[in-house]
């Protein structure tokens, strides 16, 4: 049985996005990376990964990607990523693999490693440890999340394994809605959890327990062995880095 895939391709700025302007394209997802649109690279990787499909793409302007989408279903995205995921999952169901159109370096082996390690979770998120990223992509500047037992960067790979994983998406939606109101975020997560996160005394197991208490879902951070999996194309310097990596790895 194939695993459905959701690709998030939305952009808040559309054709005004910095990367869209840089690539002279109508949407960030169409930005050429080493001569091929980012979205096309992601779709090609999904097609080459055994056991995946069908594919759904979420984007605010479906017309701009119809020539690239192939047999994929295109949904109009919601105002935020969390809402887009929630709406798509209502149609796709679970389990479902979620990734993003700006994951231009995505490789089948990363997906296979992630899925193998994510089994048994209601929701899993792929991450790369800071030491792994700095080993494999020396000099790169990534955004890291610091827990007491690990520092990591996200890899834009998620598995919503069961309907309970949908509850975590609802928690994400509430946090996004309150992102400019720290007190409400604290009330949602719990003040103790927030304080431990700020002081870096929150470990991964305590985080899992708190999320399970709030959502009933068993969640896990799945560490990937290749630090390049944490490189997405979100700014001009990322584009340069991605093309350098592709030049080194493409025959």
From TrEMBL:
Keyword hit for Calcium: no
Domain (MobA-like NTP transferase): residue spans on this chain: 22-126
One Pfam family in the UniProt entry: NTP_transf_3
Molecular function in Gene Ontology: transferase activity
UniProt keywords, alphabetically: Magnesium, Transferase
Name of the molecule in the record: NTP transferase domain-containing protein
Organism ancestry: Bacteria, Pseudomonadati, Pseudomonadota, Alphaproteobacteria, Acetobacterales
């Amino acid at each position: 049985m194939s695993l459905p895939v959701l690709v998030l391709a939305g952009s808040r700025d559309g054709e005004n996005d910095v990367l869209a302007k840089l690539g002279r394209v109508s949407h960030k997802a169409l930005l050429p990376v080493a001569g091929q649109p980012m979205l096309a690279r992601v779709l090609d990787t999904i097609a080459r990964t055994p056991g995946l499909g069908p594919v759904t793409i979420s984007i605010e302007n479906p017309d701009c990607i119809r020539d690239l989408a192939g047999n994929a279903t295109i949904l109009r995205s919601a105002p935020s990523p969390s809402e887009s995921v929630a709406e798509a999952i209502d149609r796709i169901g679970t389990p479902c693999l979620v990734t993003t159109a700006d994951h231009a370096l995505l490789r089948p082996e990363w997906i296979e490693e992630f899925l193998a390690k994510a089994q048994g979770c209601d929701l899993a998120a792929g991450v790369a440890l800071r030491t792994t990223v700095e080993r494999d992509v020396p000099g790169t500047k990534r955004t890291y999340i610091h827990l007491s037992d690990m520092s990591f960067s996200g890899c834009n790979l998620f598995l919503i394994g069961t309907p309970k994983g949908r509850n975590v998406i609802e928690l994400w939606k509430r946090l996004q809605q309150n992102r400019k109101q720290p007190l409400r975020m604290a009330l949602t997560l719990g003040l103790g959890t927030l304080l431990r996160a700020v002081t870096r005394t929150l470990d991964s197991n305590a985080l899992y327990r708190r999320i399970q208490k709030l959502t009933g879902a068993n969640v896990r951070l799945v560490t990937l062995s290749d630090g390049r999996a944490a490189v997405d194309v979100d700014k001009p310097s990322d584009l340069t880095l991605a093309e350098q990596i592709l030049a080194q790895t493409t025959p």
